[in-house]
Amino acid sequence: MILGIESSCDDSSLALINSQNLKLEFYKKITQEEEHAKYGGVVPELAARLHTEALPKILKEIKPYFKDIKAIAVTNEPGLSVSLIGGVSIAKALSISLKIPLIAINHLIGHIYSLFLNSDAIFPLGVLLVSGGHTLVLDINSFGEIKILASTTDDSFGESFDKVAKMLDLGYPGGAKIERLAKNGEANFNFTVPLKFNPKIEYSFSGLKNQVRVKIEELKNNNLLNKQSKADICASFQKIACDHILDKLSKIYKEKKFKNFGVVGGASANLYLREKIENLCKQYNSNLLFAPLEFCSDNAAMIARVGVEKYKLKQFINHKDLQIIPNLNLKNARSF
Ligand code: KG4
Ligand code: ZN
Fold first, then answer.
1. Pocket flag, ligand 1, residue 266 (CB < 6 Å)
2. How close is the Cα of 174 to the center of ligand 1, in Å?
3. Which ligand is nearest to the CA of 291?
4. Strands (DSSP E) found in 45-90
């Protein structure tokens, strides 16, 4: 069995996967959303403290499995440094006391493997990764060979949902809340699609966020911000944010027709986005993959799943060499 540990942001999670048949033998996640919601976003100090409470609590539950664990796979990059430390410290302590090897896991590779929790991975694979921290289009040719085709120059897709939700006092995290409210609204505010006439293949969400801010202020000043106009703002913003994703993705598809295409990350749970990508993939006869909804957001199952791959390749790391790496550097992930 491979133990997966995830603590890169505000979710503490442990999972055990059988390395032979990929069966998920144990899975638990303690989310800190409620605690951070009071502050409108993740407070690193608080996240660190909550991880040190939650991780040992879950660890107790897997004690009966200790004798079956063959390796410990832990997220060590990218993420909030004070959060990553929580999982990495537990992994090191456990590795030393149980004499089990350690495996370092890149969180983003984890999201990619959320597509393959119960099956062998498929390559070549195009990936859209939309989370609270990242917006990336990736071209993965074979195991460990990753090319970044597009990324965001400012806010990420999920982050822009969180920020718009905050402007509308909907609470944190905002993605699912915006999506829910958008269902009752009309996309009748004419926000413009970012970088529409810019040939560069990159994303930017901060301009759209500002368009929304200006509109909300205008509505407030005219006493027109109410339940319906909030829903209309959500529908309009969601539409344009997804149009932006699709606009650049279609341009990428004109150059490269992916045989397989996966959408991962917390924001890949957005059904409006899923539908738009489904249409694009149909048009290009591309085999579309999504993670199960429960495993779109951060979880340890995807970390344990990459752990299985690295275990088979014997890609272990000494506990002295295992460091946290807060920033994104997919070069580090090339050997995933
Ligand atoms: O992957 P994830 O759990 O954490 C990171 O690695 O960042 O992603 C969390 C992000 C948050 O920004 C959240 O608002 C967004 O995913 N999200 C959504 C939806 N559900 C979660 N964004 C848009 N629509 C959703 N339904
Ligand atoms: Zn994530």
1. yes
2. 8
3. 1
4. 71-77
**Number of other CB atoms surrounding residue 157 within 10 Å:** 28
- Tens of each residue's pLDDT in the chain, 336 residues: 999 999 999 999 999 999 999 999 999 999 999 999 999 889 999 999 999 999 999 999 999 999 999 999 999 999 999 999 999 999 999 999 999 999 999 999 999 999 999 999 999 999 999 999 999 999 998 767 899 999 999 999 999 999 999 999 999 999 999 999 999 999 999 999 999 999 999 999 999 999 999 999 999 999 999 999 999 999 999 999 999 999 999 999 999 999 999 999 999 999 999 999 999 999 999 999 999 999 999 999 999 999 999 999 999 999 999 999 999 877 655 555
Name the packing angle between helices 227-255 and 271-283 (round to 10°): 30
Which of these, 7, 146, 145, 143, lies nearest to 72 by C-alpha position? Answer: 7
**274 sits in which H/E element:** helix 271-283
- Report the separation in Å between the CA atom of 121 and the middle of ligand 2, taken as the mean of its atom positions: 19
Structure tokens at 270: 């957005």
What global pTM score does this model have? Answer: 0.95
Q: CA–CA separation, 259 vs 124, rounded Å?
A: 7
Ligand 1 neighbour 162 (Cβ under 6 A): yes
